[in-house]
């Protein structure tokens, strides 16, 4: 299992449009093979800063979604609402 952390900064005043586009993106990811779950968070006191935390079965499932036509299509409506490129970090459980 891996977790994908996506940080996004939204243009001021476009928070509602972003929320609609992000909900649509999450709705599409629900049908992606290997998607386990996810949540969207807003930073306290900074309505322009969002964090998406998604869980995937494995790296292959994430890469398949990340490179998919479906994600490219939903990102077309989301990207113009951002002030900078999204930052994506990939985490895996530690092994002892």
Automatic annotation (TrEMBL):
Residues 2-91 form the ABM domain. InterPro entries: ABM_dom (IPR007138), Dimeric_a/b-barrel (IPR011008). One of its GO terms (molecular function) is monooxygenase activity. Pfam families: ABM. It comes from the Bacteria. PROSITE patterns: ABM. Keywords: Monooxygenase, Oxidoreductase. This is Quinol monooxygenase YgiN.
């Amino acid at each position: 299992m891996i977790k994908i952390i996506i940080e996004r900064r939204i243009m001021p005043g476009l928070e509602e449009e972003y929320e609609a586009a992000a909900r649509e993106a999450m709705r599409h990811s629900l049908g992606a093979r290997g998607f386990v779950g996810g949540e969207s968070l807003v930073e306290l006191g900074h309505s322009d800063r969002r964090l998406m935390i998604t869980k995937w079965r494995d790296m292959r499932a994430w890469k398949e979604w990340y490179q998919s036509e479906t994600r490219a299509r939903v990102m077309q409506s989301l990207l113009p609402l951002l002030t900078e490129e999204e930052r994506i970090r990939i985490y895996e459980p530690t092994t002892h």
